[in-house]
Design goal:
This protein has 507 residues and is of the alpha/beta class. Helix content is 30%, strand content 25%.
Length: 507
């Protein structure tokens, strides 16, 4: 019996020793893990120059492209009560500006203005109406928008396109029309089917030998039949025919803006090793952002040499209505943000992000209950919105010196005198710590963030702590705006950019 208390005390002492050892090891392990994590976070040094370069950001740079037959699904059919949520979402992308809306796409070559006694070809399946014109005019009036309106070239009847153009001009009004566009992606007329006849035979809009020379001749015939309006073209899908751009522009003096369509990834690509195969990794690759900007850069210079504008008036992540699991993820927000900067950097003067109901890449979708509109906002829209905030109308790019890698840094100098720096971490797994030097690195700045749970997330996106949630009935984000105050130390701002996120520093 006398030995039992001693054994208990001895065991208690041993337990205490083991507890201390365990705590010491645990703390050391945690400290080591933290040190390892810190060591694993790359530190990037970057600097921003003070002398602006390149063009001034034009009004209406970020626009939308919508199919003819889809427009009513966004606006509703009552010109006295156009969808107010749509209007606000468009205004967000062009604050205080006249947004540029393009109406066309594949449906341009399915559409016509019905004329008595005229029977259109089989590929023409959508008829414009006076109601469509009234609603579109009401939308343009509410937004003070400028419209790019596609005309049917595939039907190969100049009189049909002329009737369509006159109806659009008279029904909507010249004041709201920026330009007419003859046809949609005519370089594909001999490749993809226009329609199938009653026997199931494939009918193409043009023969397999249709080329740039043939298109230019067609363009001249159609242009001669149209009302006197500014034209935008040639609206090619690929770059193959763009080698003939100079000859085309010499022949067509009415073209005031050169247009091109770009999709970095394609649903038609079946080889998973091809860099155009639709995956998140390929979407975040440089070839999908800087790559497509460099592809159009020579043609931008050709347009500018003739004092013409250049607009990518149809663009999105994956051709063929997008790809679920890629186009609808947060990766699309990071992609569109970086791509818009890249295109502006090579002198492109506007971009229209294409959308249609049900597409995987649509930036928003709408529903209506008891006359009230609701919108579900997708991740891509957040990237477009952040671009509009980071590169406002009247701003110019500033030079940035930063190492190559998954971190992309862009800087602008606004007409308001503010410097804005965008930091985009396109790595899904690796955070980055940035030591940033600005021309005036003594003043405090504010930092906002674009975040989501991961690059593959389809929800949970926040911009400066705000969100549109599952649905919005106003078109404006809700929640308290969360901006961090950043004070420089030693002439540098220290900014942590988590994996798969973006940040905007405003000074």
């Amino acid at each position: 019996m006398p030995l039992r208390p001693v054994r208990i005390l001895a065991l208690g002492a041993l337990a205490a020793v083991l507890l201390v050892a365990w705590l010491t090891f645990g703390l050391a392990h945690e400290s080591g893990a933290a040190a390892d994590a810190a060591a694993a976070t790359p530190i990037v040094s970057a600097s921003v120059g003070g002398s602006p370069l390149g063009q001034t950001m034009p009004s209406g740079f970020v626009g939308l492209s919508v199919e003819y037959k889809a427009l009513h699904q966004y606006t509703g059919r009552d010109p006295r009560a156009v969808n107010p949520v749509l209007e606000q979402l468009v205004k967000n992308l062009a604050p205080g500006q006249s947004p540029v809306l393009r109406i066309g796409g594949d449906s341009a070559d399915w559409t016509w203005w019905p004329a008595r006694g005229v029977i259109p070809k089989g590929g023409v399946s959508y008829a414009l109406t006076k109601g469509w014109l009234r609603t579109t005019k009401a939308l343009a009036a509410e937004l003070h928008a400028k419209l790019i309106l596609d005309l049917n070239l595939a039907a190969n009847r100049p009189s049909l396109s002329a009737a369509e153009a006159h109806a659009l001009v008279q029904g909507i009004g010249k004041r709201y029309i920026s330009a007419l566009e003859i046809g949609n992606e005519p370089d594909l007329y001999g490749v993809f089917a226009w329609y199938r006849d009653r026997l199931g035979h494939v009918v193409h809009a043009r023969g397999q030998h249709y080329d740039m020379k043939s298109f230019t001749a067609d363009y001249s015939r159609f242009r001669a039949a149209l009302p006197q309006m500014s034209l935008i073209g040639p609206s090619f899908s690929a770059l193959t025919w763009m080698s003939g751009l100079t000859k085309f522009l010499k022949a067509e003096k009415s073209v005031k803006t050169v247009s091109q369509h770009r999709y970095p990834l394609h649903n038609s690509t079946t080889d998973p090793t091809n860099d155009t195969y639709p995956t998140i990794a390929n979407l975040l690759a440089d070839s999908s952002s800087a790559g497509i900007a460099q592809e159009v850069a020579p043609y931008v210079r050709t347009a500018h040499s003739r004092k013409l504008n250049f607009r990518v008036d149809e663009m999105n992540s994956v051709s063929g209505s997008g790809h679920a699991g890629v186009s609808d993820t947060f990766a699309s927000a990071l992609w569109v943000l970086d791509t818009l900067f890249n295109l502006a950097n090579v002198g492109v003067q506007g971009v229209n992000v294409h959308t249609l109901p049900g597409a995987a890449y649509q930036p928003f979708s709408f529903s209506q209950t008891d006359g009230k509109w609701q919108a579900a906002v997708t991740p891509e829209y957040y990237g477009m919105l952040l671009f509009a905030q980071a590169f406002p109308s009247g701003a110019r790019l500033l030079p940035v010196n930063a190492p190559a890698g998954s971190l992309k840094i862009w800087a602008t100098k606004g007409a308001d005198g503010k410097t804005r720096v965008i930091l985009i971490n396109k790595s899904p797994t690796t955070p980055v710590s940035v030591q940033l030097n600005l021309p005036n690195s003594t003043a405090p700045a504010t930092l906002g963030r674009l975040t989501a749970p991961s690059v593959s997330s389809t929800s949970g996106v926040t911009l400066n702590g705000q969100t549109f949630g599952d649905e919005t009935s106003t078109g404006t984000p809700t929640g308290s705006e969360q901006l961090q105050r950043v004070t420089p130390a030693g002439g540098e701002y220290s900014i942590d950019v988590p994996a798969g996120s973006a940040a905007l520093l405003t000074q």
